[in-house]
Write a structure and sequence with these properties.
This protein has about 350 residues and is α/β, with parallel strands linked by helices. It contains nine helices and 17 strands. The chain folds into three domains: about 5-185, HUPs (Rossmann fold); about 220-270, SH3 type barrels (Roll), CATH 2.30.30; about 280-360, Beta Barrel (Elongation Factor Tu (Ef-tu), domain 3). A hairpin with a 5-residue loop joins β8 (about 225) and β9.
Length: about 350
């Protein structure tokens, strides 16, 4: 008799990963629970959005209830280096607005944790993400949006390679969130009503601006507010306080509303302009990962420029060195360097890259 496949489930003490473990156990897999111990800001460990002692106790309790082994993996130093310092702090230093979840999924969950799972003899790593996988006729693994459009997480998983996807399982991607909570109640899990975490896990329950001021004080230095002609209109309170497209809080009296167009870290300047100057038709992205076979010619695709953004139709043109150019059918107001541009063919995630800059046709 063939032994069942072994799967390591990344457990967090939340409802999604707990239900993922319960479903896999019910389906006959040999399940091992494992929780990542990530970096916490010194002195604020108990305030983190994950990896608290309470979360660890819950995850261990769920594992015991399911009758599966439970381990922890200390990824604190690697998480700090790759996610907090290289991606988050350095990204803001360069005038970008990074999404650290992308780096965490690429390097920590499906890097360190997957390597650990395979070293234990596991066949798969499973998480509680809302996406689905499907094998295409050409043998490649396709990533599909989760059934629950409001919870779909393909945007933050577009960074995964074919090799990683061949060892990945996403058991709850077929379910809407209310059904996941119903499953938690059916399995009698103590996390059935635990609220979802909304913040970045290392922010210690605070605002990201406060975190950056503590860990990168230069980002809070005041500087000039300029228009595109270089004329000084005012003084900003620190580039960290502003986002692309922001209107309120600029403190400038002007004949018409002004919006944040971009940040200039070299001059520590905030560049603002009118609504007419805000929209952009083009973006350039780098570090592109293609889940589908990389296109040789321009393709039409739906593009998401941030996690909660609506799809926008555009033409995606591959460029050398893992870059792309995107021309949108209609201008978008909030294209933000550091965020990801992720490409879709309907429900299929094709891949994506990190936005470097944008431009308008006017």
């Amino acid at each position: 008799m063939t032994a069942p496949p072994t799967v390591v489930v990344a457990m967090s003490g939340g409802v999604d990963s707990s239900v993922a473990a319960a479903l896999l156990k019910e389906q006959g897999y040999n399940v091992i629970g494992m929780m990542l111990r990530l970096w916490s800001e010194p002195g604020k460990e108990s305030e983190n959005a994950c990896c608290t002692l309470d979360a660890m106790h819950l995850a261990r309790f769920v594992a015991d209830q399911l009758g599966i082994p439970f381990h922890t993996l200390d990824a604190g130093q690697a998480f700090y280096e790759r996610v907090v310092r290289e991606t988050f702090i350095n990204g803001y230093t360069q005038g970008m607005t990074p999404n650290p979840c992308l780096a965490c999924n690429r390097h920590i969950r499906f890097g360190l944790l997957l390597e650990k799972a395979l070293s234990l003899g596991a066949d798969y790593l499973a998480t509680g993400h809302y996406v689905r996988l499907r094998r295409a006729p050409n043998g490649r693994i396709q990533m599909l949006r989760g059934v629950d459009a409001g919870k779909d997480q393909s945007y933050v998983l577009h960074v995964l390679t074919q090799e990683q996807l061949r060892h990945a399982l996403f058991p709850i991607g077929e379910y809407p969130k209310p059904e996941v909570r119903a499953l938690a109640r059916r399995f009698d899990l103590p996390v059935a009503n635990r609220p979802d975490s909304q913040d970045l896990c290392f922010l210690s329950g605070g605002d990201y601006r406060d975190f950056l001021r503590r860990n990168a004080p230069h980002l809070g230095a005041p500087g000039p507010i300029l228009n595109r002609r270089g004329e000084r209109l005012g003084t900003h309170t620190g580039l960290v306080d502003y986002t692309i497209g922001q209107r309120k809080g600029l403190g400038i009296a002007w004949s018409e509303p002004l919006y944040v167009l971009r940040k200039d870290p070299q001059r520590n300047a905030l560049i603002v302009g009118t609504r007419r100057e805000l929209g952009a038709n083009f973006l350039w992205a780098a570090s592109v990962n293609w889940i589908c076979p990389p296109p040789e010619n321009p393709i039409r695709a739906q593009v998401k420029i941030r996690y909660k953004a609506r799809d926008a139709w555009g033409t995606v043109t591959p460029l050398p060195e893992g870059r792309v150019h995107v021309r949108f059918d209609e201008p978008l107001r909030d294209i933000t360097p550091g965020q990801a541009a992720v490409f879709y063919d309907g429900g299929i995630c094709l891949g994506g890259g990190i936005i470097q800059h944008s431009a308008s046709s006017h």
